Protein backbone atom coordinates (compact mmCIF):
# COMPACT_ATOMS: atom_id res chain seq x y z
CA UNK A 1 0.00 0.00 0.00
CA UNK A 2 1.22 3.45 -0.86
CA UNK A 3 2.49 5.87 1.75
CA UNK A 4 -0.15 8.45 0.75
CA UNK A 5 -2.93 6.21 2.03
CA UNK A 6 -4.77 6.64 5.30
CA UNK A 7 -2.98 4.25 7.68
CA UNK A 8 -6.22 3.53 9.49
CA UNK A 9 -8.08 2.57 6.31
CA UNK A 10 -5.13 0.53 5.07
CA UNK A 11 -5.14 -1.43 8.30
CA UNK A 12 -8.89 -1.98 8.16
CA UNK A 13 -8.78 -3.15 4.56
CA UNK A 14 -5.87 -5.47 5.21
CA UNK A 15 -7.43 -6.96 8.35
CA UNK A 16 -10.75 -7.50 6.58
CA UNK A 17 -9.05 -9.15 3.62
CA UNK A 18 -7.06 -11.48 5.88
CA UNK A 19 -10.27 -12.55 7.63
CA UNK A 20 -12.05 -13.10 4.33
CA UNK A 21 -9.16 -15.15 2.96
CA UNK A 22 -9.08 -17.26 6.10
CA UNK A 23 -12.76 -18.11 5.68
CA UNK A 24 -12.43 -18.85 1.97
CA UNK A 25 -9.40 -21.08 2.55
CA UNK A 26 -11.46 -23.10 5.01
CA UNK A 27 -14.61 -23.27 2.85
CA UNK A 28 -13.03 -23.83 -0.57
CA UNK A 29 -10.09 -25.99 0.44
CA UNK A 30 -6.40 -25.26 0.08
CA UNK A 31 -6.14 -26.23 -3.59
CA UNK A 32 -8.98 -24.10 -4.94
CA UNK A 33 -8.05 -21.22 -2.64
CA UNK A 34 -4.40 -21.33 -3.70
CA UNK A 35 -5.27 -21.50 -7.39
CA UNK A 36 -7.86 -18.73 -7.63
CA UNK A 37 -8.16 -16.62 -4.45
CA UNK A 38 -4.57 -16.37 -3.22
CA UNK A 39 -3.43 -14.41 -6.35
CA UNK A 40 -6.13 -11.74 -5.78
CA UNK A 41 -4.75 -8.30 -4.83
CA UNK A 42 -6.44 -5.11 -3.65
CA UNK A 43 -5.45 -2.23 -5.94
CA UNK A 44 -7.94 0.62 -5.41
CA UNK A 45 -10.59 1.69 -2.94
CA UNK A 46 -12.88 4.69 -3.35
CA UNK A 47 -14.71 5.63 -0.16
CA UNK A 48 -17.02 7.95 -2.13
CA UNK A 49 -18.98 5.04 -3.52
CA UNK A 50 -17.46 2.22 -1.47
CA UNK A 51 -15.97 0.53 -4.54
CA UNK A 52 -12.99 -1.80 -4.18
CA UNK A 53 -10.98 -3.02 -7.16
CA UNK A 54 -9.46 -6.49 -6.98
CA UNK A 55 -6.95 -7.63 -9.58
CA UNK A 56 -5.57 -10.96 -10.76
CA UNK A 57 -2.59 -11.96 -12.92
CA UNK A 58 -4.61 -12.39 -16.15
CA UNK A 59 -7.92 -11.55 -17.83
CA UNK A 60 -8.81 -15.23 -17.73
CA UNK A 61 -8.27 -15.46 -13.97
CA UNK A 62 -10.18 -12.21 -13.38
CA UNK A 63 -13.12 -13.49 -15.43
CA UNK A 64 -13.07 -16.86 -13.65
CA UNK A 65 -13.13 -15.37 -10.16
CA UNK A 66 -15.72 -12.76 -11.16
CA UNK A 67 -18.08 -15.39 -12.56
CA UNK A 68 -17.82 -17.79 -9.63
CA UNK A 69 -16.98 -15.81 -6.52
CA UNK A 70 -18.13 -12.20 -7.03
CA UNK A 71 -21.31 -12.61 -4.98
CA UNK A 72 -19.56 -14.47 -2.19
CA UNK A 73 -16.73 -11.94 -1.99
CA UNK A 74 -19.13 -8.99 -2.04
CA UNK A 75 -21.10 -10.40 0.87
CA UNK A 76 -17.93 -11.24 2.76
CA UNK A 77 -16.64 -7.67 2.37
CA UNK A 78 -19.98 -6.20 3.48
CA UNK A 79 -19.86 -8.41 6.55
CA UNK A 80 -16.22 -7.64 7.42
CA UNK A 81 -16.02 -3.97 6.41
CA UNK A 82 -19.30 -2.17 5.59
CA UNK A 83 -17.31 0.68 3.96
CA UNK A 84 -16.83 -1.66 0.99
CA UNK A 85 -20.09 -1.67 -0.96
CA UNK A 86 -19.13 -3.05 -4.35
CA UNK A 87 -16.17 -4.91 -5.80
CA UNK A 88 -14.84 -5.21 -9.34
CA UNK A 89 -12.24 -7.48 -10.93
CA UNK A 90 -9.61 -6.80 -13.56
CA UNK A 91 -6.25 -8.05 -14.77
CA UNK A 92 -3.35 -6.21 -13.23
CA UNK A 93 -0.30 -4.78 -14.91
CA UNK A 94 2.65 -4.19 -12.60
CA UNK A 95 2.79 -4.05 -8.82
CA UNK A 96 -0.48 -3.99 -6.91
CA UNK A 97 -1.21 -1.43 -4.23
CA UNK A 98 -4.16 0.31 -2.62
CA UNK A 99 -4.62 3.69 -4.23
CA UNK A 100 -5.22 6.84 -2.20
CA UNK A 101 -8.34 6.55 -0.08
CA UNK A 102 -10.91 9.25 -0.71
CA UNK A 103 -12.57 10.33 2.49
CA UNK A 104 -16.00 11.29 1.23
CA UNK A 105 -19.00 9.64 2.85
CA UNK A 106 -19.82 6.38 1.08
CA UNK A 107 -23.13 5.94 -0.69
CA UNK A 108 -25.20 2.89 0.25
CA UNK A 109 -26.12 0.74 -2.73
CA UNK A 110 -29.45 -1.00 -3.09
CA UNK A 111 -29.46 -4.20 -1.02
CA UNK A 112 -30.41 -7.54 -2.51
CA UNK A 113 -33.69 -7.18 -0.63
CA UNK A 114 -35.51 -3.92 -1.39
CA UNK A 115 -38.61 -3.05 0.64
CA UNK A 116 -39.17 -0.10 -1.67
CA UNK A 117 -39.81 -2.53 -4.49
CA UNK A 118 -42.76 -4.21 -2.75
CA UNK A 119 -40.58 -6.60 -0.82
CA UNK A 120 -38.72 -8.14 -3.75
CA UNK A 121 -35.41 -10.00 -3.85
CA UNK A 122 -33.14 -9.77 -6.87
CA UNK A 123 -32.86 -13.21 -8.46
CA UNK A 124 -29.31 -13.94 -9.60
CA UNK A 125 -28.93 -17.24 -11.43
CA UNK A 126 -25.86 -18.40 -13.32
CA UNK A 127 -26.97 -18.80 -16.98
CA UNK A 128 -24.56 -21.71 -17.43
CA UNK A 129 -26.04 -23.80 -14.61
CA UNK A 130 -29.04 -25.41 -16.29
CA UNK A 131 -30.32 -28.97 -16.43
CA UNK A 132 -28.99 -29.25 -19.99
CA UNK A 133 -25.49 -28.50 -18.71
CA UNK A 134 -25.69 -30.93 -15.78
CA UNK A 135 -24.00 -34.23 -16.61
CA UNK A 136 -25.83 -37.19 -15.10
CA UNK A 137 -24.18 -40.25 -13.65
CA UNK A 138 -24.84 -43.03 -11.18
CA UNK A 139 -23.69 -40.85 -8.28
CA UNK A 140 -26.12 -37.98 -8.88
CA UNK A 141 -29.12 -39.42 -10.70
CA UNK A 142 -31.42 -39.36 -7.65
CA UNK A 143 -30.65 -35.72 -6.90
CA UNK A 144 -31.06 -34.77 -10.57
CA UNK A 145 -34.44 -36.47 -10.89
CA UNK A 146 -35.63 -34.93 -7.62
CA UNK A 147 -34.50 -31.47 -8.75
CA UNK A 148 -36.33 -31.83 -12.06
CA UNK A 149 -39.49 -32.85 -10.22
CA UNK A 150 -39.14 -29.83 -7.95
CA UNK A 151 -39.11 -27.56 -11.01
CA UNK A 152 -41.93 -29.41 -12.82
CA UNK A 153 -45.31 -27.86 -13.57
CA UNK A 154 -46.96 -30.55 -11.46
CA UNK A 155 -46.77 -30.17 -7.71
CA UNK A 156 -43.91 -32.31 -6.32
CA UNK A 157 -44.65 -35.12 -3.89
CA UNK A 158 -42.04 -33.82 -1.45
CA UNK A 159 -40.92 -30.52 0.03
CA UNK A 160 -38.42 -29.51 1.24
CA UNK A 161 -35.86 -31.06 -1.09
CA UNK A 162 -32.59 -31.40 0.81
CA UNK A 163 -29.53 -31.75 -1.44
CA UNK A 164 -26.51 -33.16 0.37
CA UNK A 165 -22.96 -33.72 -0.85
CA UNK A 166 -19.37 -32.81 -0.18
CA UNK A 167 -17.91 -29.70 -1.78
CA UNK A 168 -17.90 -29.45 -5.55
CA UNK A 169 -20.26 -32.29 -6.50
CA UNK A 170 -23.07 -30.26 -8.11
CA UNK A 171 -25.48 -29.07 -5.39
CA UNK A 172 -25.33 -25.42 -6.39
CA UNK A 173 -25.62 -26.28 -10.08
CA UNK A 174 -28.85 -28.16 -9.41
CA UNK A 175 -30.31 -25.27 -7.40
CA UNK A 176 -29.61 -22.80 -10.21
CA UNK A 177 -31.07 -25.29 -12.70
CA UNK A 178 -34.24 -25.57 -10.62
CA UNK A 179 -34.53 -21.80 -10.62
CA UNK A 180 -34.13 -21.54 -14.40
CA UNK A 181 -36.63 -24.33 -15.15
CA UNK A 182 -39.21 -23.11 -12.63
CA UNK A 183 -39.02 -19.55 -13.96
CA UNK A 184 -39.51 -20.86 -17.51
CA UNK A 185 -42.56 -22.86 -16.38
CA UNK A 186 -43.99 -20.07 -14.22
CA UNK A 187 -42.74 -16.69 -15.53
CA UNK A 188 -44.73 -14.72 -12.95
CA UNK A 189 -43.61 -16.80 -9.99
CA UNK A 190 -41.70 -15.40 -7.02
CA UNK A 191 -38.35 -17.17 -6.71
CA UNK A 192 -35.77 -16.54 -4.00
CA UNK A 193 -32.30 -18.05 -4.18
CA UNK A 194 -29.48 -17.14 -1.82
CA UNK A 195 -26.76 -18.64 0.31
CA UNK A 196 -27.26 -19.01 4.06
CA UNK A 197 -24.53 -16.42 4.52
CA UNK A 198 -26.42 -13.94 2.38
CA UNK A 199 -29.69 -14.78 4.17
CA UNK A 200 -28.09 -13.82 7.49
CA UNK A 201 -26.57 -10.61 6.15
CA UNK A 202 -29.80 -9.50 4.48
CA UNK A 203 -31.84 -10.30 7.57
CA UNK A 204 -29.56 -8.27 9.84
CA UNK A 205 -29.48 -5.41 7.32
CA UNK A 206 -33.28 -5.37 7.11
CA UNK A 207 -33.54 -5.14 10.88
CA UNK A 208 -31.09 -2.25 10.95
CA UNK A 209 -33.20 -0.43 8.34
CA UNK A 210 -36.39 -1.17 10.30
CA UNK A 211 -37.60 -3.31 7.42
CA UNK A 212 -37.75 -6.67 9.23
CA UNK A 213 -41.49 -7.10 8.65
CA UNK A 214 -41.11 -6.42 4.92
CA UNK A 215 -38.20 -8.89 4.77
CA UNK A 216 -40.24 -11.62 6.48
CA UNK A 217 -43.26 -10.91 4.31
CA UNK A 218 -41.23 -11.16 1.09
CA UNK A 219 -39.75 -14.50 2.15
CA UNK A 220 -43.15 -15.96 2.94
CA UNK A 221 -44.62 -14.88 -0.37
CA UNK A 222 -42.08 -16.96 -2.30
CA UNK A 223 -43.35 -19.69 -4.61
CA UNK A 224 -39.88 -21.25 -4.61
CA UNK A 225 -37.34 -20.65 -1.84
CA UNK A 226 -33.79 -22.02 -2.22
CA UNK A 227 -31.09 -21.64 0.44
CA UNK A 228 -27.57 -22.91 -0.30
CA UNK A 229 -24.92 -23.96 2.26
CA UNK A 230 -27.50 -24.25 5.03
CA UNK A 231 -24.80 -25.54 7.41
CA UNK A 232 -23.66 -21.92 7.87
CA UNK A 233 -26.99 -20.85 9.34
CA UNK A 234 -26.74 -23.09 12.38
CA UNK A 235 -25.89 -21.56 15.72
CA UNK A 236 -27.46 -18.21 14.75
CA UNK A 237 -30.52 -18.07 17.01
CA UNK A 238 -32.36 -15.16 15.41
CA UNK A 239 -31.82 -16.27 11.82
CA UNK A 240 -32.63 -19.89 12.67
CA UNK A 241 -35.88 -18.76 14.24
CA UNK A 242 -36.80 -16.64 11.23
CA UNK A 243 -35.91 -19.43 8.81
CA UNK A 244 -38.00 -21.90 10.83
CA UNK A 245 -41.07 -19.66 10.68
CA UNK A 246 -40.53 -19.08 6.96
CA UNK A 247 -40.29 -22.82 6.27
CA UNK A 248 -43.44 -23.46 8.31
CA UNK A 249 -45.32 -20.75 6.42
CA UNK A 250 -44.28 -22.00 2.98
CA UNK A 251 -44.99 -25.64 3.81
CA UNK A 252 -48.50 -24.72 5.02
CA UNK A 253 -49.08 -22.90 1.72
CA UNK A 254 -47.85 -25.86 -0.33
CA UNK A 255 -44.89 -23.88 -1.71
CA UNK A 256 -41.57 -25.36 -2.81
CA UNK A 257 -38.41 -25.29 -0.70
CA UNK A 258 -34.91 -26.46 -1.64
CA UNK A 259 -31.92 -26.40 0.70
CA UNK A 260 -28.39 -27.69 0.23
CA UNK A 261 -25.66 -28.60 2.68
CA UNK A 262 -22.39 -30.50 2.90
CA UNK A 263 -23.77 -32.93 5.48
CA UNK A 264 -27.08 -34.68 6.29
CA UNK A 265 -29.67 -32.88 8.45
CA UNK A 266 -28.85 -35.01 11.50
CA UNK A 267 -25.20 -33.90 11.33
CA UNK A 268 -25.93 -30.16 11.45
CA UNK A 269 -24.30 -28.97 14.66
CA UNK A 270 -26.22 -26.53 16.83
CA UNK A 271 -29.42 -26.68 14.81
CA UNK A 272 -32.80 -26.18 16.45
CA UNK A 273 -34.59 -29.53 16.67
CA UNK A 274 -37.75 -28.02 15.21
CA UNK A 275 -35.86 -26.82 12.15
CA UNK A 276 -34.08 -30.17 11.89
CA UNK A 277 -37.48 -31.88 11.82
CA UNK A 278 -38.72 -29.62 9.00
CA UNK A 279 -35.62 -30.13 6.88
CA UNK A 280 -35.87 -33.91 7.24
CA UNK A 281 -39.57 -34.24 6.43
CA UNK A 282 -39.20 -34.01 2.64
CA UNK A 283 -36.64 -35.83 0.51
CA UNK A 284 -32.95 -35.97 1.41
CA UNK A 285 -31.08 -36.58 -1.86
CA UNK A 286 -27.44 -37.55 -1.43
CA UNK A 287 -24.93 -36.85 -4.22
CA UNK A 288 -22.05 -39.28 -4.02
CA UNK A 289 -18.53 -38.52 -5.23
CA UNK A 290 -18.35 -38.69 -9.01
CA UNK A 291 -16.93 -41.89 -10.45
CA UNK A 292 -14.42 -42.16 -13.24
CA UNK A 293 -16.99 -42.45 -16.03
CA UNK A 294 -18.81 -39.31 -14.88
CA UNK A 295 -15.57 -37.37 -14.54
CA UNK A 296 -14.60 -38.41 -18.04
CA UNK A 297 -18.04 -37.45 -19.41
CA UNK A 298 -17.84 -34.01 -17.79
CA UNK A 299 -14.45 -33.27 -19.34
CA UNK A 300 -15.58 -34.43 -22.76
CA UNK A 301 -18.76 -32.36 -22.49
CA UNK A 302 -16.80 -29.22 -21.60
CA UNK A 303 -14.32 -29.76 -24.42
CA UNK A 304 -17.14 -30.32 -26.91
CA UNK A 305 -18.18 -26.74 -26.17
CA UNK A 306 -14.67 -25.55 -27.07
CA UNK A 307 -13.94 -27.18 -30.43
CA UNK A 308 -10.92 -24.92 -31.02
CA UNK A 309 -9.12 -26.46 -28.03
CA UNK A 310 -6.92 -29.43 -28.88
CA UNK A 311 -6.69 -31.69 -25.84
CA UNK A 312 -5.38 -35.22 -26.55
CA UNK A 313 -7.41 -38.18 -25.32
CA UNK A 314 -4.62 -39.36 -23.05
CA UNK A 315 -4.63 -35.99 -21.23
CA UNK A 316 -8.40 -36.19 -20.74
CA UNK A 317 -8.04 -39.69 -19.35
CA UNK A 318 -5.19 -38.60 -17.10
CA UNK A 319 -7.22 -35.69 -15.64
CA UNK A 320 -10.30 -37.85 -15.16
CA UNK A 321 -8.34 -40.50 -13.28
CA UNK A 322 -6.21 -38.27 -11.10
CA UNK A 323 -8.44 -35.28 -10.17
CA UNK A 324 -11.03 -37.24 -8.26
CA UNK A 325 -11.84 -35.29 -5.09
CA UNK A 326 -14.52 -33.03 -6.55
CA UNK A 327 -15.85 -31.78 -9.87
CA UNK A 328 -15.00 -28.16 -9.15
CA UNK A 329 -11.32 -29.09 -8.95
CA UNK A 330 -11.67 -31.18 -12.09
CA UNK A 331 -13.09 -28.31 -14.16
CA UNK A 332 -10.72 -25.86 -12.50
CA UNK A 333 -7.76 -28.02 -13.46
CA UNK A 334 -8.94 -28.25 -17.06
CA UNK A 335 -9.46 -24.49 -17.27
CA UNK A 336 -6.06 -23.76 -15.75
CA UNK A 337 -4.41 -26.09 -18.27
CA UNK A 338 -6.27 -24.50 -21.20
CA UNK A 339 -5.46 -20.99 -20.01
CA UNK A 340 -1.77 -21.76 -19.60
CA UNK A 341 -1.54 -23.34 -23.05
CA UNK A 342 -3.37 -20.40 -24.62
CA UNK A 343 -1.22 -17.76 -22.90
CA UNK A 344 2.12 -19.47 -23.57
CA UNK A 345 1.46 -21.14 -26.91
CA UNK A 346 2.61 -24.51 -25.60
CA UNK A 347 0.75 -27.60 -26.84
CA UNK A 348 -1.30 -29.51 -24.28
CA UNK A 349 0.43 -32.75 -23.36
CA UNK A 350 0.46 -35.18 -20.46
CA UNK A 351 3.78 -33.68 -19.35
CA UNK A 352 2.37 -30.12 -19.38
CA UNK A 353 -0.62 -31.27 -17.32
CA UNK A 354 1.66 -32.87 -14.72
CA UNK A 355 3.80 -29.74 -14.60
CA UNK A 356 1.07 -27.11 -14.31
CA UNK A 357 -1.40 -29.06 -12.15
CA UNK A 358 1.12 -30.58 -9.75
CA UNK A 359 -0.53 -29.00 -6.69
CA UNK A 360 -3.98 -30.36 -7.52
CA UNK A 361 -2.68 -33.73 -8.62
CA UNK A 362 -0.57 -34.28 -5.52
CA UNK A 363 -3.57 -33.58 -3.30
CA UNK A 364 -5.88 -35.89 -5.25
CA UNK A 365 -3.66 -38.85 -5.90
CA UNK A 366 -3.98 -41.86 -3.67
CA UNK A 367 -0.41 -42.82 -2.89
CA UNK A 368 -0.14 -45.90 -5.08
CA UNK A 369 3.39 -47.27 -5.20
CA UNK A 370 5.24 -49.00 -8.00
CA UNK A 371 5.69 -52.01 -5.72
CA UNK A 372 1.90 -52.22 -5.31
CA UNK A 373 1.45 -52.01 -9.09
CA UNK A 374 4.01 -54.74 -9.73
CA UNK A 375 2.43 -57.02 -7.14
CA UNK A 376 -1.08 -56.51 -8.58
CA UNK A 377 0.05 -57.08 -12.18
CA UNK A 378 1.93 -60.27 -11.22
CA UNK A 379 -1.13 -61.62 -9.41
CA UNK A 380 -3.34 -60.78 -12.37
CA UNK A 381 -1.07 -62.46 -14.96
CA UNK A 382 0.08 -65.19 -12.53
CA UNK A 383 3.75 -64.31 -12.73
CA UNK A 384 6.54 -64.49 -10.20
CA UNK A 385 7.30 -61.05 -8.80
CA UNK A 386 10.97 -61.38 -9.84
CA UNK A 387 9.91 -61.25 -13.51
CA UNK A 388 9.33 -57.48 -13.16
CA UNK A 389 13.10 -57.04 -12.88
CA UNK A 390 14.30 -59.99 -14.91
CA UNK A 391 15.94 -59.81 -18.34
CA UNK A 392 13.58 -62.35 -19.92
CA UNK A 393 12.00 -61.10 -23.15
CA UNK A 394 9.40 -63.80 -23.72
CA UNK A 395 6.10 -62.15 -24.59
CA UNK A 396 4.30 -63.82 -21.69
CA UNK A 397 6.69 -61.95 -19.37
CA UNK A 398 7.54 -58.80 -21.33
CA UNK A 399 3.95 -57.74 -22.02
CA UNK A 400 2.82 -57.78 -18.35
CA UNK A 401 6.04 -55.95 -17.46
CA UNK A 402 5.19 -53.26 -20.05
CA UNK A 403 1.67 -52.98 -18.65
CA UNK A 404 3.13 -52.47 -15.18
CA UNK A 405 5.42 -49.72 -16.50
CA UNK A 406 2.45 -48.06 -18.18
CA UNK A 407 0.41 -48.18 -14.96
CA UNK A 408 3.36 -46.80 -12.99
CA UNK A 409 3.46 -43.77 -15.27
CA UNK A 410 -0.32 -43.28 -15.24
CA UNK A 411 -0.87 -43.77 -11.52
CA UNK A 412 2.25 -42.42 -9.83
CA UNK A 413 4.20 -39.15 -10.05
CA UNK A 414 7.44 -41.02 -10.79
CA UNK A 415 9.60 -40.02 -13.75
CA UNK A 416 10.62 -42.38 -16.55
CA UNK A 417 14.14 -42.91 -15.10
CA UNK A 418 12.69 -43.60 -11.63
CA UNK A 419 10.30 -46.16 -13.06
CA UNK A 420 13.11 -47.79 -15.03
CA UNK A 421 15.17 -48.24 -11.88
CA UNK A 422 12.25 -50.08 -10.21
CA UNK A 423 12.14 -52.53 -13.15
CA UNK A 424 15.63 -53.96 -12.88
CA UNK A 425 17.52 -50.78 -13.71
CA UNK A 426 16.11 -50.38 -17.21
CA UNK A 427 16.82 -47.25 -19.25
CA UNK A 428 14.17 -44.51 -19.37
CA UNK A 429 13.78 -45.04 -23.14
CA UNK A 430 12.59 -48.59 -22.42
CA UNK A 431 9.86 -47.23 -20.15
CA UNK A 432 8.82 -44.62 -22.75
CA UNK A 433 8.54 -47.39 -25.37
CA UNK A 434 6.45 -49.53 -23.01
CA UNK A 435 4.06 -46.67 -22.20
CA UNK A 436 3.53 -45.76 -25.87
CA UNK A 437 3.12 -49.41 -26.86
CA UNK A 438 0.46 -50.11 -24.23
CA UNK A 439 -1.40 -46.90 -25.18
CA UNK A 440 -1.38 -48.07 -28.80
CA UNK A 441 -2.47 -51.61 -27.96
CA UNK A 442 -5.37 -50.33 -25.83
CA UNK A 443 -6.79 -48.68 -28.93
CA UNK A 444 -6.29 -51.75 -31.14
CA UNK A 445 -6.75 -54.75 -28.85
CA UNK A 446 -9.97 -55.07 -26.85
CA UNK A 447 -8.49 -57.76 -24.61
CA UNK A 448 -5.52 -55.55 -23.72
CA UNK A 449 -7.81 -52.59 -22.98
CA UNK A 450 -10.00 -54.78 -20.75
CA UNK A 451 -6.91 -56.04 -18.88
CA UNK A 452 -5.70 -52.49 -18.21
CA UNK A 453 -9.14 -51.32 -17.13
CA UNK A 454 -9.46 -54.23 -14.72
CA UNK A 455 -6.03 -53.51 -13.23
CA UNK A 456 -6.85 -49.81 -12.88
CA UNK A 457 -10.05 -50.64 -11.00
CA UNK A 458 -8.22 -53.03 -8.69
CA UNK A 459 -5.52 -50.50 -7.90
CA UNK A 460 -7.92 -47.57 -7.45
CA UNK A 461 -10.10 -49.56 -5.08
UniProtKB/TrEMBL annotation:
<dbReference type="InterPro" id="IPR010921">
    <property type="entry name" value="Trp_repressor/repl_initiator"/>
</dbReference>
<feature type="binding site">
    <location>
        <position position="172"/>
    </location>
    <ligand>
        <name>ATP</name>
    </ligand>
</feature>
<dbReference type="InterPro" id="IPR020591">
    <property type="entry name" value="Chromosome_initiator_DnaA-like"/>
</dbReference>
<keyword id="KW-0547">Nucleotide-binding</keyword>
<keyword id="KW-0067">ATP-binding</keyword>
<keyword id="KW-0446">Lipid-binding</keyword>
<dbReference type="InterPro" id="IPR027417">
    <property type="entry name" value="P-loop_NTPase"/>
</dbReference>
<dbReference type="Pfam" id="PF00308">
    <property type="entry name" value="Bac_DnaA"/>
</dbReference>
<dbReference type="InterPro" id="IPR001957">
    <property type="entry name" value="Chromosome_initiator_DnaA"/>
</dbReference>
<dbReference type="GO" id="GO:0006270">
    <property type="term" value="P:DNA replication initiation"/>
</dbReference>
<comment type="function">
    <text>Plays an essential role in the initiation and regulation of chromosomal replication. ATP-DnaA binds to the origin of replication (oriC) to initiate formation of the DNA replication initiation complex once per cell cycle. Binds the DnaA box (a 9 base pair repeat at the origin) and separates the double-stranded (ds)DNA. Forms a right-handed helical filament on oriC DNA; dsDNA binds to the exterior of the filament while single-stranded (ss)DNA is stabiized in the filament's interior.</text>
</comment>
<dbReference type="GO" id="GO:0005886">
    <property type="term" value="C:plasma membrane"/>
</dbReference>
<dbReference type="InterPro" id="IPR038454">
    <property type="entry name" value="DnaA_N_sf"/>
</dbReference>
<keyword id="KW-0238">DNA-binding</keyword>
<feature type="binding site">
    <location>
        <position position="168"/>
    </location>
    <ligand>
        <name>ATP</name>
    </ligand>
</feature>
<feature type="binding site">
    <location>
        <position position="171"/>
    </location>
    <ligand>
        <name>ATP</name>
    </ligand>
</feature>
<dbReference type="GO" id="GO:0006275">
    <property type="term" value="P:regulation of DNA replication"/>
</dbReference>
<dbReference type="GO" id="GO:0003688">
    <property type="term" value="F:DNA replication origin binding"/>
</dbReference>
<feature type="region of interest" description="Domain I, interacts with DnaA modulators">
    <location>
        <begin position="1"/>
        <end position="109"/>
    </location>
</feature>
<feature type="binding site">
    <location>
        <position position="170"/>
    </location>
    <ligand>
        <name>ATP</name>
    </ligand>
</feature>
<comment type="similarity">
    <text>Belongs to the DnaA family.</text>
</comment>
<comment type="subunit">
    <text>Oligomerizes as a right-handed, spiral filament on DNA at oriC.</text>
</comment>
<dbReference type="InterPro" id="IPR018312">
    <property type="entry name" value="Chromosome_initiator_DnaA_CS"/>
</dbReference>
<dbReference type="InterPro" id="IPR013159">
    <property type="entry name" value="DnaA_C"/>
</dbReference>
<dbReference type="GO" id="GO:0005524">
    <property type="term" value="F:ATP binding"/>
</dbReference>
<dbReference type="GO" id="GO:0008289">
    <property type="term" value="F:lipid binding"/>
</dbReference>
<feature type="domain" description="Chromosomal replication initiator DnaA C-terminal">
    <location>
        <begin position="369"/>
        <end position="438"/>
    </location>
</feature>
<dbReference type="InterPro" id="IPR013317">
    <property type="entry name" value="DnaA_dom"/>
</dbReference>
<keyword id="KW-0235">DNA replication</keyword>
<dbReference type="Pfam" id="PF08299">
    <property type="entry name" value="Bac_DnaA_C"/>
</dbReference>
<feature type="region of interest" description="Domain IV, binds dsDNA">
    <location>
        <begin position="342"/>
        <end position="461"/>
    </location>
</feature>
<dbReference type="InterPro" id="IPR024633">
    <property type="entry name" value="DnaA_N_dom"/>
</dbReference>
<dbReference type="Pfam" id="PF11638">
    <property type="entry name" value="DnaA_N"/>
</dbReference>
<keyword id="KW-0963">Cytoplasm</keyword>
<dbReference type="GO" id="GO:0005737">
    <property type="term" value="C:cytoplasm"/>
</dbReference>
<protein>
    <recommendedName>
        <fullName>Chromosomal replication initiator protein DnaA</fullName>
    </recommendedName>
</protein>
